[in-house]
Amino acid sequence: MTIDQFQLEAKDINVWFGERQVLKDVSLQFPSNKVTALIGPSGCGKSTFIRTLNRMHELIPSAGLAGSVLLDGQDIYEEAVDPSTVRLRVGMVFQKPNPFPTMSIKENVISGLKLSGRKNEISDDLVENSLKRASMWNESKDRLDEPALSLSGGQQQRLCIARSLAMNPEVLLMDEPCSALDPGSTRRIEETILELKESMTIVIVTHNMQQAQRVADKTAFFLAEDNQPGYVVEFGETQQVFGMPVDPRTNDYVNGHFG
Predict the structure, then answer these.
(1) C-beta of residue 25 within 8 angstroms of C-beta of residue 12
(2) Which CATH architecture is the domain 6-97+169-254 placed in?
(3) Residues 49, 23 contacting (CB under 8 angstroms)
(4) Does the pLDDT at position 167 exceed 50?
(5) Residue 3: its pLDDT value, please?
(6) Does the reported pTM lie above 0.90?
(7) What is the rounded CA–CA span in Å between residue 168 and residue 102?
(8) Distance of CA 95 to the CA centre of its chain
(9) Contact 105, 151 (CB under 8 A)
(10) What is the DSSP code string of the chain?
């Protein structure tokens, strides 16, 4: 794919929880094989938005949505589209590491394949490849049968990334994947993100401005003002958003004047 192609697009996304609107008219194009960062103060709808990109938003009671999310040109919210299929193609890594506690390291890697009825795809090579892509193989190859919870927090998060990668997703969503981790673990995951973008599109929510500058090709700045729904103030090349922002509110945020 060329950099001018967009495998994933959000068009006029509006989101509600009950009668409260939390996002308004969000339209973003995510370049293929690039990393897009979503930044902005807490409560502006970044995590809500990223969950609309693989239909996880609709799992929340009272959630409502208008607009469309296109994956390879097809709206994932069309009635005929199976949401479980969408989530196989668009993987998700959450803020807090969430390995299955009763499963071993290896069982965690292949758990998604088992749950989705793709047991025939399971192999030792797949386990090894998934862990290698998540930068976890060297640390886990001699302890695959040990409990996942025997790993450190940073290792657990990379195991969760490996679990997503075993499904061979086209897009990987990451909701503040490093917020609970130490600097060393954060660095490893950032290195992993940069390697993974060669084979997939990545969208990451982060409150770490330095992290966005280190890993993201594009950055979208979200804001919610005076109890109004969140919206995108500015979207562009990361270097431009941080170095020469168009909107003064972007400049104030990325330079730590609020948020």
Answers:
(1) yes
(2) 3-Layer(aba) Sandwich (3.40)
(3) yes
(4) yes
(5) 44
(6) yes
(7) 24
(8) 9
(9) yes
(10) --TT-EEEEEEEEEEEETTEEEEEEEEEEEETTSEEEEE--TTSSHHHHHHHTTT-GGGSTTEEEEEEEEETTEETTSTTS-HHHHHHHEEEE-SS----TTSBHHHHHHHHHHHTT-GGG--HHHHHHHHHHTT-HHHHTT-TTSBGGGS-HHHHHHHHHHHHHTT--SEEEEESTTTTS-HHHHHHHHHHHHHHTTTSEEEEE-S-HHHHHHH-SEEEEEE--TTPPBEEEEEEEHHHHHHS-SSHHHHHHHTTS--
Total number of residues shown for the chain: 259
| Residue bearing tokens 């949505």 | 65
Asked whether the beta carbons of 211 and 186 are under 8 A apart, the reply is yes
Average pLDDT score over residue span 227-231: 94
Q: What six digits make up the tokens of 136?
A: 């976890």
